[in-house]
User: Fold this.
Amino acid sequence: MKSEPSVYSIDDLKKDKKTCWDGIRNYQARNFMMRDMNPGDLAFFYHSNCDVIGIYGVMSIYSKSYADHSAFDKFSKHYDPTSTKEHPRWFMVDVKFERKLQRIITLGSLKEHSQKELLNFRLLAKGNRLSIIPIEEKEWKFILSLGE
DNA sequence: GCCAACGTTGGC
DNA sequence: GCCAACGTTGGC
Assistant:
C-alpha cells in the first residue's frame, strides 16, 4: 500500500498506531480492499513520490472494508458528491502499525530482482500506478528477506 | 519540472 | 461503444 510520506508516512502510522486508509479513488485499488483484504492480513507500507522510494515497514489490516467517509466531506480533498451514505462509491480499511523494516527496501533494489524472484510483482510492471497492489506469499517472503 | 502511462469523462 | 481530451500518478 503506497503513501506519499509528505502526506502520511510510516512514522505517522507508528505514532498513530492505527489509521483508516482513506482517499482511495481508483476502482481497482478499491476492489482489492473490498474483495481481498481481511482482518489479520499483512501489508507493506511503501513510500512513493519522495527522495528514497521503497518499502519502509509492515502493517496489518484490522477491519473489513467500509464506506470512506472522506468522500462525504465537502471540505476534504477527497470529496466525491457521487458517493452517498446510502450508496457509497468508495471504501477503505483500517490498518495497524506492525514494525519498520531494519533496512529500507528501495525501489531500485526491488528492480534488481525483476527478472527472477519478482518477475510478476505488479509494483514493477510497466506503467503501474496502482496505490494498492496484491502480492504473492512467495514475493512477500522474498522481499522481507531483503529487508531484515 | 518533465513526461510516460494510465484512468475517467463526455460528445458523438 | 468509440475515442479524443483531459487529469492524475509517480519515477526520474
Observations:
- The longest strand of chain A covers residues 94-106.
